[in-house]
Structures are given as structure tokens and as C-alpha cells.
Amino acid sequence: MMKLPTYFSDFLRNIRLTPSQINDLITGHTTLRDRLNKDETLSKIIVSTFLQGSYRRSTAIRPKNEQRSDVDVIVVTRLSQDEYTPEQAMKVFEPFLEKYYAGKYRYQGRSIGIELSYVDLDLVITSAPSEAEEGILQSEDLLNTYSIEDYEEISKSVSTPIPFFLTESTTEPEWKTSPLFIPDRNVEKWVKTHPLEQIRWTWNKNAKCNKHYVNVVKALKWWKRINDPENNPKSYPLEHLIGQSCPDGIESVAEGVTFTLEYIVDNYKEKPFLSDHGVPEHDVLGRVTDEEYEAFYEKVKDAAIIARKALDAETVEESAEEWRKLFGNKFPEPPKRSTNSSNSTGSQGGFTTRTDKTIPGGGRFA
């Protein structure tokens, strides 16, 4: 079985966010948070702000054509659903947006998009949580900017307790069972979301997959981008489908990619109903049309065949060439065939001579 660990490490290094892009995300978010906390009007109705989305879950990939990175910022408010419609709740933020982001913001279906020169922010406001949850949502663990991979790297060298929102809490279960409500302008309703449960689920899934799961997601997001960038599913719906299809216990990214694609082929020929984490009545694929899913499924079938050939190849060269068919030129080229036929190390484990240091991790503490 060709797992090609160093090839995948280099590939992932090529597609994950760069340190400068991560710094841009943090700068954009912390600047927004500081301005909100200092705003005379909004500071009185804000409970908490925290990061969510693919960056927090460590499933983000490098922006297309080196464009700006984006980050989702949850702003938990004390606005009542009984007193504010979704439209009215968003309009509460308009004076603030005009002051700091005039000409750079736009109202979206469920968020307010802010386009800066160096980063895109998605401002997602929520209605008032229960009084018991306010303290939980103000936890320092939740307010920091660490991603799942950051926490994993910290835990290797520092005796740091795992944050409460990443574990199965028994003493404070409220955050698990109570989703937040965000405004949906399209349907003029407040709708449920549970970003903490999505983060927690990803953390636990990654542990069950020997820390390979988030990298499987990044790899398949990249495959989708270069092979079918416009068609749905993409973004979180694609990630959720991968999560439901990737088996526990995988021992490499190569296995995870192959097994995930094959699982979709075998089990999801027709568009499934996939319950969201923490909001089981919400179908994550609900906005994906049957026609879009059918086109996606056909591409998955082709990709599964290529991935299986790559995994079962007899040589490193053959395996790497197949993976490049899926992932493009960000996946390393195999070494040129040399006159020395004893390439036993490479053919067994995929190790090649490198001039650059391979960095398998993706956080800020390597």
C-alpha cells in the first residue's frame, strides 16, 4: 500500500494557509473584536466574539490564486428574537460598519461580509443565548485564535488542559445541547447553528483518525477546487460529507482520501440527508440541488478509481503520478528514474531526497 507520507506532507504544506495568511486572519479578527468592544452602543449588547469556520477547525486551504483569506467571526449578542427581525438585527450594526468599514461591507443571507485589502471577514451575529450560557461563551479558551492543529501542537510540549468546548463536557452540558440562532434574511427567520459542536466533532474525529482527518479534508477540498470549483457541494457542506464518509482508524492521508471517495461512491449514489452537528433537523446538503449532486457524484467516481490506483501502485513513481492527476502540480513530482535500481526505501514508504525541510504540522508552534 503506497501511503507516501513525505509526499503528502509536502503537498499539504503547499495547500494550507501560509503563516502570513494566518497572521492576516488574526489581525482582521482582533481588530474587529477590539472595535466592537470599544463601541459605545454595541459593547453593551455583545456577550462574546469568537472564531469559527474552516480556520478554527483546521480544514482551511490556501485561497485560490493567492487571493485573500477569509475567516468567520461569531458575535454573540443580547438581541432578542422577539424584538428584532433578522433584518433589524443586522441593521443594528450599520452605524458601526459605516464608521470603520464604509464601502467595504455588504449584507449577505446569514452574515455581513467585510472585504479588506488583506482579509475577508464574515460577521455572523446571534440572538441572545440563555443566561447560563453567557459565561461559557465568554471563556478565554473560546475567545483565543487557536485552531485544532494549534491545540494539538501545544499539547505536545505544554501541560495544557484541553479546552472545554473540544471535549465531552459533563459538568457544563449547556453548550452542547443549545445551538445559537443566527438571522437568515432570505427566509426572514432566526435559524439554528452550532459552531461549537462542529469544532468539537472535528476535534474528536481527528483523534479517531490518528490526526489525519483534517488533512484528508484539506486534500479533498483541494481536489474539488481544481477539478470542479464552481459546482456544489463546496465549503462546509463538502467538509461535512467528507466527515460522514471518512472511516475511523485511518493510518495515512492517502488511505483517508481513497476510503472516503469509495465510501461516497458505495453509499451516497443519491444525495443524502446529512444532519448537522448539534442541529439534527438541519440538512447540510439542503441547498445542493439533485443536479449539482449528480454531477459531483460522477466526478467522485472518477476520482475514486484514480485514488485506488495510487494507493495500490507498485512503485513510488506510479503512485505519485496518479496522485498528481487528482491534486495537480501542488503534489510533488516523483523522482526521476535513476540508473540505481535499488529504490527500496522510496517504494516502501514514499521517502524521497529533499532539499527543503518537510514540515508536517500546520500551526504556529512548530
UniProtKB/TrEMBL annotation:
- Keywords assigned by UniProt, alphabetized: Transferase
Cite the GO molecular-function annotations of the record.
Answer: transferase activity
Asked whether the keyword Transferase is assigned, the reply is yes
> Which parts of this chain are annotated as the region Disordered?
327-366
Residue spans of biased composition, Low complexity class: 338-353
* InterPro entries attached to this UniProt entry: NT_sf
Q: What is this protein called?
A: Nucleotidyltransferase
Species classification? Bacteria, Bacillati, Bacillota, Bacilli, Bacillales
